[in-house]
Amino acid sequence: MKQELAIQARSISKTFHISEDSHNTVKHRLFNLFNPPRRKKVEALKQMDFDIYKGECIGLLGRNGCGKSTLVRLLAGVYPCDTGNINIYGSTLLMNLGVGMSHQLTARENIYVSASVLGMKIKDIDNIFDKIVEFAELQDFVDTKIKYFSSGMVARLGFSIAVNAGADIMFLDEIFAVGDMKFQEKAIRVFESSWIAGKTVILVSHTMETIQKYCNRAAFMKNGSLVYFGETQKAIELYVQDNA
Ligand SMILES: Nc1ncnc2c1ncn2[C@@H]1O[C@H](COP(=O)(O)OP(=O)(O)OP(=O)(O)O)[C@@H](O)[C@H]1O
User: Is the shortest distance between the CB of 73 and ligand 1 below 6 Å?
Assistant: First the structure.
């Protein structure tokens, strides 16, 4: 059977330039007039290529700071790539503690904006609106700006929008770790239902059981490089070795 592409990444990379000293205060600036803030280059993502196919659930493994979130953000279009290009075949939604949602908007407004981005018509969003709010258990916070939400509440809202609005490609960053126990159980039920069939999921998790259970392939990253992309078990072994 011919596999259909969902994501194609070619020679993508990302470097951040950060200033080490914060010359924010007047005192700081006066004392450092001839001493500009030092700039540091962080190669968050070194050039990499890969293909992800429709219906795959890909695990993304690596220690803190290895570049997982940067990669997910590039794929979701949050940051532009410095080099290379990414082709996405389908609608995407990033559910990473509210990245992709506007903190200045209410839950209601975010639902309409995110679902529209996924290609839904206003009338169709009206029909699933209550389901989204109910699933996220945010009935009492519909008209609250999400900047007042806890990170778990934002993650619940993002997950609920994706589940109910039906994104084709989803980036889930520690989705099983952010909600409370009840929500985690719900997220697991969704994962184990037929809903997941046909969807493409990129799952970032530090919990090996989760990766083992749901991912058909996995990637292991280290210091911004894609070290391995293939069998889930092998990627887990590399990650465990890297933590030893
Ligand atoms: N917006 C940014 N500006 C500057 N540096 C950044 C930015 N985002 C990430 N970085 C840097 O890029 C590197 C990779 O960070 P990233 O968040 O992608 O790692 P991660 O693997 O997702 O880590 P974690 O497991 O802690 O979530 C780090 O050194 C980080 O400091």
Answer: no
Buried b (16+ CB within 10 A) or exposed e, 95-130: bbbbbbbeeebbbbbbbbbbbeebebeeeebeebbe
Provide ipTM, 2 decimals: 0.95
Residue in the structure block whose two tokens are 């169709």 = 124
What CATH number is given for 5-10+53-243 in this structure?
3.40.50.300
Q: Atom of ligand 1 at shortest distance to CA of 71?
A: 18
220 close to ligand 1 (CB < 6 Angstrom): no
Nearest residue by C-alpha to atom 26 in ligand 1: 64
Domain boundaries, the chain: 5-10+53-243
| Residue 62 main-chain phi, psi, to 5 deg | 160, 155
Ligand 1 contact via 64 beta carbon (within 6 Å):
yes
What is the C-alpha to C-alpha distance for residues 237 and 189, in angstroms, rounded to an integer?
A: 27
Residue 70 in contact with ligand 1 by CB distance below 6 A: yes
What pLDDT, in 10s, does the model give residues 187-217?
A: 888 878 766 677 898 999 888 998 999 999 9
Query: Cα torsion for 228, 232, 233, 234, to the nearest 10°?
Result: -10
Q: Determine the distance separating the centroid of ligand 1 and the alpha carbon of 73, expressed in angstroms.
A: 10
- Residues of the chain falling short of pLDDT 70: 1, 21-24, 36-37, 93-100, 178, 194-196
Which residue's CA is the nearest one to ligand 1's atom 30? 65
40 CB less than 6 Å from ligand 1? no
